[in-house]
């Protein structure tokens, strides 16, 4: 859509003007295409509420000229000061946001930063065309005047009557019953208050006596409770001592019984144990054990060696004897053959 924008003035009090060339309405499809629905947020505006060129917002939030500046061409100093203060606050907020947001670090030596487009569709970058926005302001609303008081219209006719003094009633005569009632009620109320005070005094006296009696009873109850507590503590202490005595007696009786049973059991156990140990060789005579373990094995070894030597000597003797005997018998036979 081709449009012509009026140059924008920095003064917010000027009027806003917008105009566009007339153009024919294009034929619209009955249903939107999916691609158009996806790209609607990228520049295709079908609703003026989403058009960035439409000024939106509450009219009360716009800059309203004071009434004095409407009739006079002089600007309001207070309004100018307020606008300057608002500008300073905006600049301070902008500086604070720039300090908070993380900035790109400086480029390394021999390099430089370059702006790169990151949008889905690339567009040609060109010099920014200077444009300006112009606003318009309606007349200020005057305060609503106060609503006048509603007074209904009269209906009927006015009439008047003259009454002379003493025609309607006699004050001294008519006021007497009222005075009698007031005096009677006052006296009755006074008597009731006196009776109530006496009754309250009697109640206080009775309450005081009851409180004294109750305090005495409480003291007696506390004394009896303390006495009962001491008796219970003494009873518990005596029971505990008796239980300790019975426990000690039971322990002593068990010890005595265990000792008697041990003595009775050990009377037959010790001889049998000694006999078994003696039979197994745990109780022995050192000399006999030395003879059995040292001397007898040595003696047997010596006797065995001597017998082996004797056996060897006898074997050698037998072989020598046999050779000798054969030699003796062999020589005569040889002589006999030569002869």
Strand arrangement within the widest β-sheet reads 1-2
SSE order: EEHHHHH
Largest sheet: 2 strands, antiparallel
The helix-and-strand class reads: mainly alpha
Beta-strand percentage?
Answer: under 5%
Give me the number of helical elements. 5
Principal-axis shape: flat
Q: Let me know the average pLDDT.
A: 78
Secondary structure layout plus pairing:
Elements: E1 3-5, E2 18-20, H1 34-38, H2 67-71, H3 77-100, H4 171-279, H5 286-338
Antiparallel strand pairs: 1-2
Brief summary:
This protein is an all-alpha fold and 339 residues long.
Annotation keywords:
339 residues; mainly alpha; 5 helices; 2% strand; flat; disordered N terminus
Describe the structure.
- The protein contains five helices and two strands, in the order E-E-H-H-H-H-H.
- It has 339 residues and is an all-alpha fold.
- A two-stranded antiparallel ribbon has the order 1-2.
- The chain is flat and about 210 Å long.
